[in-house]
Here is the input.
Amino acid sequence: MALHKIADFDPHYRDTFQGNDVKGLGLYADGTDEKIGSVSDVLVDDEGHFRYLVVDLGFWIFGKKVLLPVGRSRIDYGADRVFAVGITREQAENLPEFNERETLDRDYEERVRGVYRGSRDNTQPIEASAPLNASTGVGVASAQTQPGTTYQQPTTAPAYNRDAYTYEQEPSLYGLNDQDHQTLRLYEERLIASKKREKTGEVSIGKRVETETARVAVPVEKERVVVERVTPRDAGKAVAPGEANFREGEVARVEIYEETPEVRKEAFVREEVRVTKVVDQQTVQAQDTIRREELDVDTSGLPVEER
Here is the structure.
């Protein structure tokens, strides 16, 4: 199967990928963020599947271009970077140089693959957050892949048969874990109502003493002496001898009393004041602007079934 530059295979590939173009992005070593070069081109097969990135290793090896299998790349469009996954400087030096004027053949590709296979014995599982989609055709879908996928280097290289070799034999170099089945999460915002208790004021209830002048009527009795002179019936009648007893200094004494008011004060319970709280309930309306993600499917005239 022949390889083609992406612009030769599809002159309008930028429209297919909605402006996301990997060409020209800086190339960095994954894990160290060391810049090792830049991406100069992309090679696709006869069906438009991404197979290699043509990278210029100018920061590592001046003037040398090599092929990077898409399974060993991780693209970050937000940072305008492409990360070379699991590649060492020693491997870069051993890679055969890419010459645009020479036709690529199967044997050249096998030499490239052999260099990348050399690290399979000490390669740990590699986390890929956004590599290129090697199994998607140019005219069908984007070059982005699902983040968070994990893949492992193969433990043994497939037996090389120049005429029977297929890229599917080495998914660690060309495949990206069933990227034709991806999950997109659509998010929406909702209003979540809750209540919090806040102090809005304070009511102080106390007592104060007021004074006033009170009046009370008290009936009292007061004694007085009345001296009344009257003419007896036998006035002018002589009395018997010895009956008249003349005493000088005889005095009649009469005690006189009167009542005086006595006023005292006593405290009495007049009333009780009971202080309680009651809760009034009411419904308060609140509103805000919320967002929701909707799915936009750009089919570009291709058959897509929505379920």
Helices lie at 6-9, 13-16, 89-94, 106-117, 171-174.
